[in-house]
Specification:
Elements: E1 2-10, H1 15-30, E2 35-42, E3 49-56, H2 59-66, H3 69-81, E4 83-92
Antiparallel strand pairs: 1-3, 1-4, 2-3
């Protein structure tokens, strides 16, 4: 299992426009084969900080995601919605258990 976690910054004044683009990305990504979870969350205290959390079945599913047309469209939208300071990490998870 592969986990992607991190943050991006979005200009808070563009958050409503960004939300429309984020919804398109979420809906398309969640339909992909191998996507277990895909979410964005605006930070409760810092409205310009968006937390990203993704879970993929395996690296092959993630690699296919990176080639998906909706990901290319999402990246093209970044300048218009003011995305910056992208900080994402990839984790290769061998086991998961409830806390």
């Amino acid at each position: 299992m592969i986990v992607i976690a991190g943050t991006v910054r979005i200009d808070p004044s563009r958050l409503n426009v960004a939300r429309l683009e984020m919804e398109k990305m979420l809906e398309a990504s969640r339909r992909e084969d191998g996507c277990i979870e895909y979410s964005y969350a605006v930070d409760v205290i810092d409205s310009g900080l968006v937390r990203i959390f993704e879970v993929w079945r395996d690296k092959a599913a993630l690699d296919r995601h990176f080639q998906a047309p909706h990901l290319a469209s999402w990246r093209l939208a970044w300048p218009a919605i003011g995305i910056s300071d992208r900080k994402l990490s990839i984790y290769d998870v061998s086991a998961v258990a409830p806390l």
